[in-house]
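User: Hi! I have a protein structure encoded as tokens and I'd like to know what sequence might fold into it. I'm fairly new to this, so please keep things simple.
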């Protein structure tokens, strides 16, 4: 239920998509007796998109998420294992082209590969199924092992979980594979902005993990970079994370 809502109503609540939807509604109303109201909706939606594209609103929403956990410092003590959350491979392009195709979050896999080389005896669990309502037979995890091998990590080291549809299921299924025991040390690799929600969901399953954030989207200098499309993308990402955290805090369920 929550998964379906997140992929339908939830997507419409992401701010850039919400403004765009309002604009489309306004355009439709232009051809009805409510054309005056429709005109206001179009102008309002357009104005909101321009403002969000010109001002670093999305970056301001992302920064507290990305700064929640510090940069991870390597230690001499080797971890028991490394859990890598999906989100770095475009499974549909990979399927169409027959070649593992990186997505924006591919830095997660790069970071995990570095850790795998540093700690050659650590287990590596990659969890990532299909996050879409359709096309469920195409799974991101199916291409993960090849991506690791391309980065110099043997496929035999990668434990693949291919059925999780969202972060909550990532946590549950990764724990089932890891079967963590007391005093074991497990690292969690995902994008910095996604780490607060991920850690909270892993805690709900009683799977204690050590955050290894990567794939930062903001910084002190880039915060002010004038790039409207990038800023709208940041706003969409931040909206998704804050809505997910709000639902988690209020209902205890993930979307």
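Assistant: Happy to help. Inverse folding works backwards from shape to sequence: for each of the 255 positions I chose a residue that suits the local structure. Here it is:
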């Amino acid at each position: 239920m929550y998964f379906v809502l997140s992929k339908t109503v939830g997507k419409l609540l992401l701010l850039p998509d919400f403004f765009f939807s309002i604009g489309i509604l306004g355009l439709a109303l232009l051809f009805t007796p409510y054309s005056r109201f429709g005109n206001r909706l179009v102008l309002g939606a357009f104005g909101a998109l321009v403002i969000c594209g010109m001002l670093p609103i999305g970056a301001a929403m992302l920064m507290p998420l990305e700064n929640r956990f510090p940069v991870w410092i390597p230690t001499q003590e080797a971890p028991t294992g490394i859990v890598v959350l999906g989100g770095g491979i475009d499974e549909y392009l990979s399927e169409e082209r027959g070649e593992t195709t990186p997505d924006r979050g591919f830095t997660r896999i790069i970071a995990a590969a570095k850790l795998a080389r540093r700690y050659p005896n650590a287990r590596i669990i990659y969890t990532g199924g299909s996050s879409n309502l359709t096309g469920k037979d195409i799974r991101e995890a199916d291409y993960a092992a090849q991506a690791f091998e391309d980065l110099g990590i043997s496929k035999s080291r990668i434990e693949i979980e291919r059925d999780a549809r969202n972060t909550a299921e990532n946590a549950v299924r990764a724990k089932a594979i890891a079967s963590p025991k007391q005093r074991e040390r497990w690292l969690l690799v995902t994008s910095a902005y996604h780490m607060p929600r991920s850690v909270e969901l892993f805690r709900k399953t009683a799977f204690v993990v050590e955050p290894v954030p990567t794939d930062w989207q903001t910084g002190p200098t880039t915060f002010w970079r004038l790039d409207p499309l990038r800023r709208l993308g940041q706003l969409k990402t931040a909206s998704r994370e804050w809505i997910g955290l709000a639902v988690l805090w209020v209902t205890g369920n993930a979307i």
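A useful reference point when you look it over: The longest helix spans residues 228-251. Feel free to ask if any position seems puzzling.
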